[in-house]
Amino acid sequence: MTLSSPATYGELLERMRHESPLVQCITNFVAMNFAANVLLAAGASPAMVHAPEEAGEFARLAGALTINIGTLSSSWLDGMLRAAAAANEVGRPWVLDPVAHFATGFRRQAIDALLQHRPTVIRGNASEIMALAGEASAGRGVDAGDSVERAQASATALAQRSGAVVAVTGAVDWVTDGQRALRIAGGSELMPRVTAMGCALTCLIGALVAVAPQSPLAATASALACFGAAGSRAAQQATGPGSFAWRFIDALDALHASELAAQVTPA
Amino acid sequence: MTLSSPATYGELLERMRHESPLVQCITNFVAMNFAANVLLAAGASPAMVHAPEEAGEFARLAGALTINIGTLSSSWLDGMLRAAAAANEVGRPWVLDPVAHFATGFRRQAIDALLQHRPTVIRGNASEIMALAGEASAGRGVDAGDSVERAQASATALAQRSGAVVAVTGAVDWVTDGQRALRIAGGSELMPRVTAMGCALTCLIGALVAVAPQSPLAATASALACFGAAGSRAAQQATGPGSFAWRFIDALDALHASELAAQVTPA
Amino acid sequence: MTLSSPATYGELLERMRHESPLVQCITNFVAMNFAANVLLAAGASPAMVHAPEEAGEFARLAGALTINIGTLSSSWLDGMLRAAAAANEVGRPWVLDPVAHFATGFRRQAIDALLQHRPTVIRGNASEIMALAGEASAGRGVDAGDSVERAQASATALAQRSGAVVAVTGAVDWVTDGQRALRIAGGSELMPRVTAMGCALTCLIGALVAVAPQSPLAATASALACFGAAGSRAAQQATGPGSFAWRFIDALDALHASELAAQVTPA
């Protein structure tokens, strides 16, 4: 598998649909239902398992793990840390979504602890990635206050420092492993008007990286291309954010692997 | 009320709509919103009350209780056990949904403790019911790896041993009280592509058994027939799992009691 | 801003869309996704932050706070009390939604503790408001058993005693600050058939009161008018509660400020 072949992204989607990987999603209360439906529509098998009593044990069964701190609590953080440790022990990839990690002291401490478990991929909006790289950001609450372009240098620095693939999502997404970078187009202005779109994308990255753990950059780009292509298609018939949400699920289900290549360009 | 009359299932639906029973649903975070909307569309009054501080007190007010271990934690298990004990004390029926109970040690212990409170109905997919009966299963995560047909003997044994009505749901559902058995048709291939369908069905069984606590086999079959009929109707116009989900809610709301009889046949 | 000008309600909506206030919503598990989508469609920026570890710190960042006890637990109550105290310290408005507060002893104690933090607005159904004012009510679970008309005297007494604006929502809404009162029309019979409509409305009141903290009566009426107008519009094309839910989100997004005035009349 090479990034130079545009067919790579579609092949990864087909492989994911064929294997239907079990993806353990520790995500927030707002996103759980939508993220599970996104994964089912795309072809994966989601499992929302987060309790400290079992999160680590379950991580050994799953093909990948995703962790999102949107509605964090101490008990959930405990489950997240156990799951990340277990994923590392058995060599499974895991994806980190640092929602609004700069907003409170509790979140800043949580994200420091999670980063020590070396995520395979980090996905955030521009403000989250900039703040993670130590830059000043205009972030407020869960919405980005900065453009993807402004966050590119931060993303590269973060990728080099952490060893993770870093994805900055927004109007046009940008993903890098610290050396190479890809730009992913598509989507719709309605996407930030629907809650949990980014959280669900993080879960889908988990599904793709589960079937290509050695190629996290290509797997992440494939997930972003799925969202770009399905988002563009859904927007064509949507009459607002309410109709966009279910049309997006239908579009993910109907997505052809051949549609992905056009979404991705080297940056 | 006799099972020999095909009108029974529709009569139970009409009775449920007339009484609009208060159903206490202790279900998982993924299913809560969808399950509440399913119950409202079908005609019941759902209440999601689970905290140990009040779950037992509330169970004395409700017409039925449903318990689903999808996103279990120790605190929630405490609330579940108190609610089940209270339901038994006041003679109210309760329904158990043993989601992926075989996946971790925490779940196995939880399900053992819950079974001691003698559920009125147990609903699961084939893998969950087979594992509950002590059989080897191909279950993985929350999705079934076995066919309903393979689970029939397990369901009968489990019903006889536990005294519960046991429903195995899948392409064609199968429900038994250990002596008699019914087969329920209908539905759509899109149903396993929408998250929390099974969890919502468990809650609807609670609504039907609330109005016919002496006839849990017929009440369960009536709930399964509602899902079969509404699922078939929703699938006629759905263009994918996203549009199926809301069309299913509309179909439950529009369901005629007379549609149920054709879904159910003696097994 | 005066209540005598019918344009007030639309102007507040426009101001809210312009400022896109950050609204901290501590709401129940059933409502979280839908409420976040309602706020995004209306033009606000929702943040679901509730953990005791950060709820108070976050309340200092937000333009308003909303608290809903739908799926209460001890840990969440702790976060609610910290957030309400912090909102008061920094002079931010906050909105209380006392879901089924009469149902259990745990809820009764919780609501007493929350009321001591002097909410800016209280929104409930008729049974909830009557019980809060010390009247006998026909409430059962989360659904109202009384008419809005029956609750008007209770609402006025509660507003005078608590200093809060009190909104009673139902077929025709009624809101008062203890001196003046407004009646808000519109909506649809499908609204009580969709879960979390009232909970989402509470969050939208938070968004409006965030941009007009000195005019909580007008801000609350503006939020109720948004629901009335969008509900009427959504009902025109809905074929059941499933299609109503997403059409309602689309209608909020498409709402013209000029539509609000006709919904509100002095009571």
TrEMBL record, chains A, B, C:
Q: Which UniProt keywords apply?
A: ATP-binding, Kinase, Magnesium, Metal-binding, Nucleotide-binding, Thiamine biosynthesis, Transferase
In terms of InterPro entries, this protein maps to: Hyethyz_kinase (IPR000417), Ribokinase-like (IPR029056)
Q: Which reaction is the catalytic activity of this chain? A: 5-(2-hydroxyethyl)-4-methylthiazole + ATP = 4-methyl-5-(2-phosphooxyethyl)-thiazole + ADP + H(+)
The entry marks the following residues as binding ATP, namely: 123, 169
Q: What is the E.C. number?
A: 2.7.1.50
Q: Which cofactor does it need?
A: Mg(2+)
Work out whether the entry's keyword set contains Kinase: yes
**Keyword set includes rRNA processing:** no
SUPFAM superfamilies assigned: Ribokinase-like
Output the Pfam families linked to this UniProt entry: HK
Organism superkingdom? Bacteria
| Pathway listed | Cofactor biosynthesis; thiamine diphosphate biosynthesis; 4-methyl-5-(2-phosphoethyl)-thiazole from 5-(2-hydroxyethyl)-4-methylthiazole: step 1/1
Q: Which GO terms describe its molecular function?
A: hydroxyethylthiazole kinase activity
Question: Can you tell me which residues bind substrate?
Answer: 48, 196
This chain's function reads: Catalyzes the phosphorylation of the hydroxyl group of 4-methyl-5-beta-hydroxyethylthiazole (THZ).
Q: Family assignment?
A: Belongs to the Thz kinase family.
Q: What is this protein called?
A: Hydroxyethylthiazole kinase
